[in-house]
Each structure stands twice: as structure tokens, then as C-alpha cells.
Write a structure and sequence with these properties.
alpha+beta; 210 residues; four-stranded antiparallel sheet; globular
Length: 210
Amino acid sequence: MATFQATAIARRIKRSVGEQTFCQVNGQNVVKMKIEENTSNTPAQQRQRRIFTELSDWGNIFGEAAALGFPTRQRQLSVQNAFMQANAEVVSVSEEGEITVDYTQIACSKGRLDVPKVTVTCTGEPPVLTFTHPAQKNGRCRKATDRLYAAVLEKELEEVEVFELNKRSEAEAVTAELDEAWKKENLCVYVFMLSENGDKASDTKYVEVS
């Protein structure tokens, strides 16, 4: 790339002449040589684009949960971008083009609040989930008024339901009924805490369903 003096003839030049392209960059007249070979479509770049597309799709699937779970994201980040940034290592693509999703590592929230030990059991048809956790009082990175949320994924259907459960201080079991098309073997459950006014969150904890 080089700069050139805008002569009367050069001022009339538009776009490209031969192997050269004329344009303006930051107010300067610039001439660039055409690229003979496009190297922007290597197998590694193709895989990266597929990862980006897959992450974008998962961002849409977890959109409702992510809208709650990233209250402290940077101002320039959308909810979708915050989700994709937090889950950059969740999706991988093999050299053969096979997509793998590590469901146990999906994050639909990010923050410093403490998460209690949560137990989830599934019974009946349609499935009913029962959530239990020990009651907690105010402490480091927690308040009794914090509220527990669950994002439940049916991974074959690629659908997510978000449930607002009980407060940190409440030990009573809470149930959530799922759609009749959902199967227990396809369920992934993610829990996180939000402060009472929703301006603070915890990291996401994956919970095995029993």
C-alpha cells in the first residue's frame, strides 16, 4: 500500500486500474495492489465460522436466561455477545466438520454471588422437576433475599425454559412442570442466583438430574 498525489487525472480514477486499487484512507489517497489469491477460507477459518454460528444459535436458545444472568456485562456488549463470550470454549468443530457441544460447561450467567448446593429430581410424565437447597442467611457474596433461578434445556429439541424458584433463605422444595414432549434423558439443568433487584448474579452451576 502506498500514498499518491491526487493529480487531475488521478482524481478521475475510480476503484481499480489493472492490478491497482485507488481509494482514500483517513483523508489520504492510497493505492493498493490487488490480492491474487484469497486465503481467508482456510479449513481452520471455516471451522471458526461454524463455531461462531453455532454459538450464536445457542445464544438465541438461552436468550431469556442470558437476559437475566449477565446484569454486570460491559456496556458495549449485548446479551448475545456476553453469552457468546462466556461460552467461547463450549463449542468445538472437528477437522471432519462434526460439531460438539459440552453441555456441562454452558454458562447462562456470570457474577460473584454464591450458589448453594442444589439437588434436582425428575418424576412423572410429563416430567416434573423438584428443586431443593439448604436455607442460607446473609454472608460473603450472598444475601438471604437472593433468588434461585433454573434454566432447563431439552438438548434434542434445543429448547430452554427458565424458572424463578425460591429465595436463598427458603429451604422448601419447589417443583417445575415441563412440556410433555420433553424427555428426562435429554434434560440439562443450570442454576444461578440473582440479587433481589437483579443487578448482581452468580456464575452458572450445572446440576445432574436424578
